[in-house]
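Handout, page 2. Input:
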Amino acid sequence: MNPRLTLTSSVVGAVIVALDGTVLTVAQPTLQRDLGASLAQVQWTSTGYLIAVASLLVFAGRLGDRYGHHRVFGVGMLGFGAASAGIAVAPGAGCVIGLRVVQGVFGALLQPATLGMLRAAFPPDRLRTPIAVRTAAIGVAAAAGPVVGGALVAGPGWRVVFLLNVVPTVVFGVLALTVRGPRQASPVRLDLPGALLLGVALACLVHALVGLPGWGWTAATAMLTGAAFVRHERRAASPLLPPDVLGSAAVGSALGMLVAASAALSGTLFVATFLLQDTLGLDPVQSALRSLPLALLMVLAAPGCAVLLRRAGARRTTVAAMTVLALGILLLSRASATVPLCAAFALVGAGFGTVMVAATHVVVREATVESAGAAGGLQQTAMNIGPVLGVAAATALMGPDGARELPLVVLAALALAGAAPGRALPGRPGPTIDDHGRSADRAGVPAGR
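Output:
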């Protein structure tokens, strides 16, 4: 696939998933009233999706390694769009929940492929800018989601929210399936037992973190199946997680930073909602205006991070960015006036946007083309587990009185702790780019059709 078309497809796929999640949050109250759904059913429209996505991301990435990322991306886009269309005409809450789970399955297929396609289309030393563009687009979607969702819900209704996905998913899904990708000399073998064990472990972990009834049993199941997965991977001839990905200290550190950063961000936003509306008495529009610098700085930080990576290296960039993220959260814990609040949100957005680009760049760049899907699946898993962990921690720390200082201080400490793994990331690049002996990967990159 042509590199420009690959980048466009990757951006569209990532934006559709990000936009879908943000606009659904706005639409949930209206959805509940129109369908006569209970609060638990509304919660499951999000939880069912999260469980499906988290449990399948790594296996979906491995499918891309075997059958081609553009094919898996195309199937994921078409399925995601079909499920969205089904939700738009769903007669009841149960149907919406079931289709959201289906949507999660196809979302798991397309998300790792958006990174796998980039790794296959761009040489390692040219990945910074495509990843920065993709991250900036996600930031724009996060900022536009509440506005678009609010306008649609107030106008044509919540069902139109899901129709937004249909046209772009069909166009780019069909386009991806019609493109012929490079043939693999030795396709990777699929580790089905490992995929099952990891899927159960992650699904149970998400269930436990969300705090649904029976979370104790699912937490224990997550620990047991996680241990069984580790034991299986050590003995498997073709493990689900390739040794070049799992054995890389840089990849492991980058994933840890992504979990910490996304947990800190999501937990902070959860607390900030109550801070702005309950403590400070602002309405939703006023709250959105004060938090707008977060999305704006996240968008601006993405291209800036590409420059920082080239000049300072991933190690210094990520450590500094995690520190900025922590400072922003600490400032938010004490801010009440408009200017300090906007400054705090700006620091949070700048720190998170930079970490996301830099850590993602390390994960994708360190993987070979043959393992790019697995690496993308791990990156997406980190970005899905982190927010659930952050919101769960914030909920537990806020308590019944809705105190904000303690949870925000703890989340800032989490961000600072997340800077420690940055010491294992690559330093400042030298005059020539060392792609770790994988320059042969470039021979397999299609020139474009």
